[in-house]
Amino acid sequence: MNQPTRSAGEVPVWVTGVGTTNPLGQDFHTVADNLLAGRSGIMRVTDLELDDSSCKIAGRIGAIPVPPGQDPAAFRALDKLQQLILYCATQALVDAGHWENRGKLRVGLVMGVGAEWLRAWELDFHATGGTLLRSPRGDEESLIRVVQQQLGLRGPATVVAAACASGNVALAQGKNWLRRGWVDVCLAGACDLWITPMALASFGRLRVLSRRNDEPAAASRPFDKDRDGFVLGEGGAVFLLESAQTARRRAAHPYAELAGHGATSDAFNLVIPNADPAPASQAVRLALHDAQINPDDVDYINAHATSTSVGDTCEAKVIQSVFGSTVSKVPVSSTKSMTGHLLSAAAAMEALACLIALRHQAVPPTINLDNPDPECSLCHVPHQARPQAVDVAISNSFGFGGNNTCTVFRKVA
Amino acid sequence: MTSNDQCAIAAIGMAQATLDDIAALRKDTIAPKHADEHTVVGVAAMQRARAAFPDGFSFADWGVVAAPRWPGRLSSYAPLEKYHREGARSVSAMLIPNLCLHAMSGTVSLAFQMHGPNFGVGGGLANVPDGLLAGMVVQLEQNLPGTWVVLTEWNREPFSPAAEEGTPVLQALALALTTEATVSAARHLRLEPSEVLTSQPAYPRLQGLLNYLAAPMDDQLWWCALDWGMDLVLGAEGKV
Does A55 qualify as catalytic in the annotation? Predict the structure, then answer.
């Protein structure tokens, strides 16, 4: 596959704002504290009737705080996914220092959401017996457009979906919009709230969910020999992207440079990852090439590793294939061990984990990694965070549809 | 603003089908058994567009962007009903992989053995401009030999009120986007500054684009005014 050719003089894109709500917290600092302390956000699901579901645990987020500029009662009346997107986008704008001047800028909005409508139809079906499905009006607005209007943003807005890799695709699209001059700044990320009876049932039937219902915090155990599937999570993360040039001009404090992106497809199976590591390895290589770095420049790999038998083994082969002899030296962890699998929002959550590693100069751990699977021989960081220099962090995210993506983040000097 | 936000359209494929037609198409297309209606008709449009390329042409390094309008609406009703009757064990494992917004792009990449990026975009009223913009930016930024854009929507949503006349028809369009230099193409897709600013979001129907593409090529343009100061324009070479 051809590799994009980047000019040496190209202006870098920086992440200057973060907004998040996820099972580990509702702001960057709280999430960083919990992630680096190795705390689990997995708990028993108590608000849904899941008597005949095999999995009854998940990473939950609780009530979403009311963002600035919103009437509390009106905010509480919104659909929770709308609340989540609104909260994360607002927090990212505020954090970046663009909240007050957002109306003067072309602010793009690109959000990874894989099942906006399926979720809405399911919730409606449980509540009304299927009114939205049986009597479609044909003019229902996407939440992304509603949020865009609520925030008064002027710029392109869209939803992207690459299954569990959606957040990486959103970041790539946001960066591309900036590069082409379509926007002045761009909000990019992903949000997902799909812990529903149907989602739990369908993933359960796929036999990809953990059944360790009696020990929620120990259920998600990527790369562990005794792993038995993933745990669903919910939440999101949204990032404010802008060119280094404009960020420097206003003395913004960057979290990192969004340095590279790579994406390929397995073209093998809609659900099962390809045992041949070549296509996914190519996505990682494309990302490294896009960032103009070599494998030995990478200080931390945030693995996609969901805690499934097949997926973790396949990813280990991908990492071994790309990193060759350096694989024993590059720390790898899966933060899904603490957050669960946020589905469409997984890549955004894990981009956040990379920013935390870069900001705190520490690699987050894989908790519950008691017996590393010999089939997944990597430089693991079990149980506890590892303080070390982190200048470059990469995040792998793969998904249904044979999606393979990798994003590279670089510390800004 | 860059001056080269433009792609060539190397091939066009169209398909449309009623629910009865879709049942027949499931047997004829290479879409998988559990595929959503959007995916079945989208794949049929792809198969027609592929005919513009020589036999044995490889799409191995191509990408695909799929933009269905409300995918999974029809296909999710029966499983939800069944879930309420029979519980979690009645739910198919294939529900999520086939009904989400990314299902069609993943299926197309698999069916046509494409290893470039694949993702779904839009999913709602703005599926046409969302799909065209996303396909354009992938093609322009990722140095691929080509990017497929597949757009699908019902002319009116199934289950619509009975007062509306006519049988719902699912329409699909597949466009092969390439860079200017590689193909001498008849039509081009371009993003350009709007002459008239609009604050209303653009929700053009796919039918309008299909009508334009089905007509003999002339000086007419298809355009879509976006609400951020730009227009998407499609037309013959030299006119865009």
Answer: no
